[in-house]
Amino acid sequence: MATMTEPEAVSTIKPSHDYHAEAHVLSGHLQRPIEQKIERQAPVKLNDRRGGHLTRHAEDVSIEGLITFTKGHTRVSGARSLKNNGWVTLSTSILEGLNVLEIITADRVVSQVSTDHAYENGHVPHVTFLGTQFTNFQVGGFSPTLTLNLGVCGDIPANGRSYLQDPKFLNTVKAQTAAIAQASGLPKDLKEQYDGKLAHLNQLISTSNAGDQGSHEPITCSLVQSIGAIPIPGVQIFGHILVIPEFGAVALGEIEVGEKIYEREQRPSPYFELTGIKMKMGCVAEGTASAVTVTANGHHNP
Question: pTM higher than 0.85, yes or no?
């Protein structure tokens, strides 16, 4: 007697996507010579399923004459991709005429990040930082040569892994981090910071090799591969970091790669945050400031 077989269940749930993107041109907190929080300048945010295009701008901003810029522009976009029918998110921040205490100056700095989520199995996106640039970035009037690697995050990790589980990407970040952590003359506070980053990376690599999920704590790297010589006595260069006597430390092109769990979501979604110039000041002034920061990621369903 013939037996009937039931047809395999076919999912009727169509993939969908929520866009997430943010950008601002300047933020921070000064402690000396004045106490002042630097509110986010020209902030813009995209956070919905419809997508669209949003822009903001600011002009002639002066934080008590200590940090100034002439123009700032931000924009965020989200739209369907004509290439793969997926979803593309773009976040851009542009700062012109930056001047920090007459020491750090730039004619124009652009941070840009774009994520591309495929229609099928698109939870982990391809990411690019194309468009990021430093025009006439100077330290004390000197213009060092900056070497950029806009493809530092590489290809989409294989087998549906996140970037925090991808051995290839993790080892790339580890090499960059170790070069700083093990550099001769690295100041104590940076040494402690980068030793901690290196330990976290080793843990992630160990768990990824074992096939475990591992930690969702973010990791940092930089698309600035090297900074050319600066003929100012005492200036030290460690990868993408400048240590400037009587000023502080400046990190260029720093990227944070992490994961967020959104509402009603079980699997965390990757995000990418790029800050063009990140400063921790001491001596002449004290405080922190970040210029041209952008974030892009998305929540892919199912």
Answer: yes
Give the pLDDT confidence score for residue 213 in this predicted structure.
61
Measure Cα distances from 255 to 66, 151, 172, 180, 296 in Å: 26, 12, 13, 15, 11
Do the bridges between strand 16-32 and strand 236-238 make them parallel or antiparallel, or are there none, so unpaired? Answer: unpaired
Contact 162, 124 (CB under 8 A): yes
% of the chain residues with pLDDT over 70: 92
Give the tokens for residue 72: 């700032």
d(CA 170, CA 150): 17
CB 78 within 8 A of CB 51: yes
Q: What is the pLDDT of residue 197?
A: 97
Instruction: Write down the residue that tokens 């931000």 correspond to.
Output: 74
Q: Where are the domains of the chain?
A: 17-301
According to DSSP, residue 143 is labeled -
Cβ atoms < 10 Å from Cβ of 214: 18
- Mean predicted confidence (pLDDT) in 28-45: 96
To the nearest 10 degrees (0 to 180), the angle between helices 167-181 and 188-209 is: 160
Q: Which three-class secondary structure state does DSSP give residue 204?
A: helix
